[in-house]
Amino acid sequence: MARIGFERLAHAYPGGGGYALKPMDMVWEDAGAYALLGPSGCGKTTLLNIVSGLLRPSEGRVLFGAADVTALPTERRNVAQVFQFPVVYDTMTVRENLAFPLRNRGVPAAAARGRVEYVARLLGLTRDLDRPARNLGADEKQKISLGRGLVRNDVAAILFDEPLTVIDPNLKWELRSRLKELHREVPVTMIYVTHDQTEALTFADRVAVMSEGEVVQMGTPEALFERPAHTFVGHFIGSPGMNLLPCAVEGRQALLPGGLHVTLPHAYPALSGQVELGIRPEFATLADEGLPVTIRRLEDLGRRRIARLELAGRPFAATLPEGMPVPAEPRLLLQPAQLHVYAGGRLMPGEA
User: Fold this and answer.
1) Cα dihedral value 70, 73, 76, 81, nearest 10
2) Which of 75, 133, 219, 304 is the most exposed place for a label (fewest CB within 10 A)?
3) How many whole angstroms separate alpha carbon 350 and alpha carbon 254?
4) Which DSSP symbol is given to 330?
5) CA angle 211–216–222, rounded 5-degree value
């Protein structure tokens, strides 16, 4: 197991015209469960490849504990990798597939057998141990890939690169839950790359949200939802994402287009750049009092209803309380403690 650290780490591909991964300092604690979350092209796979040793960064250092591994190849970093598409040996049984990494390292047969049976039990593969891998579906094959990463008890970290992409949607929830259970059973550093917020937030204890080669925020799922440090995080996390309205801020007042005023929980100094007021739909509610809005449509999501509105000439999403009829003259209530002010895309702390 390893504590993984980055010191001024950055990467630019030759002829790429800039950083694919912008300079960063970051630490992943030993035995933590982490996720790299972001859209395609944001740099998350580049960062994972640097951790694994498949790619050497153009700047900075990678540390495993106190050891500088920046120049070490993959085979000397003692990491296990699980890729998007299952990598299994079809001519082998499930048991032989799981035992393969141990056999390569000369683990005694009895010890290898016990470890294989333990991992198979964790993954629900016990019944399939003596079946040829070629007869299994994609989900079982991906379980084998997961198992080969877990079967070694000496790895520094296990790296998952979009491991559930090819899995049937009905089985994704089961495998996500099983991965979380596995991390409790096998306390090893795990890093999970995905563009799917549900996968990231249900697996990881801490999530690094990436955009355009930069980690814009790393935090717990709760922190990312309740206090996004960047407008990208507010937009990317949540369904629907955070509402953002252009505004001017004077002390504790946010001035919206159309002459509307919103009282803020904190006072703010003079702000420069693009200033926006942010609040999540969960903390904005249709009511009989508050800001005037226009209803464009309602979306019934079963357990809740989302009202698509227009506020100050901008689209806005809010919740409609269960059982509440649509108001004849709709108004909007905003929870003051959940209002956030952003300047240049960054969260402003406000003054006491």
Assistant:
1) 100
2) 75
3) 12
4) -
5) 115
Q: How far apart are CA 188 and CA 61, in angstroms?
A: 22
What pLDDT does residue 190 have?
A: 93
How is domain 4-236 classified at the CATH fold level?
A: Rossmann fold (3.40.50)
3-class secondary structure for 156-219?
A: CEEEEECCCCCCCHHHHHHHHHHHHHHHHHCCCEEEEEECCHHHHHHHCCEEEEEECCEEEEEE
DSSP conformational letter for 123: H
Phi, psi angle pair for 169, to nearest 5°: -55, -35
List the 67-68 sheet strands across, edge first.
21-28, 4-11, 59-64, 67-68
Cβ atoms of residues 4 and 28 within 8 Å: yes
Cα four-point dihedral sign 97, 98, 101, 104: negative
pLDDT at residue 152, as a whole number: 87
- Which SS3 state, helix, strand or coil, does residue 225 take? helix
Domain ranges in the chain are 4-236, 243-347
Q: How far apart are CA 219 and CA 215, in angstroms?
A: 11
Calculate mean pLDDT across residues 290-312. Answer: 91
The residue type of 143 is K
Which are the contacts of 72, defined by CB distance < 8 A and separation ≥ 6? 53
Contact 84, 60 (CB under 8 A): no
Residue 1 binned pLDDT confidence (cut-offs 50, 70, 90): low
**Percent of the chain having pLDDT more than 70?**
99
Alpha-helical runs (H) found in the chain: 44-52, 94-104, 109-123, 138-150, 169-185, 197-203, 221-226, 231-236
CA distances from 265 to 272, 316, 340 (A): 20, 21, 9
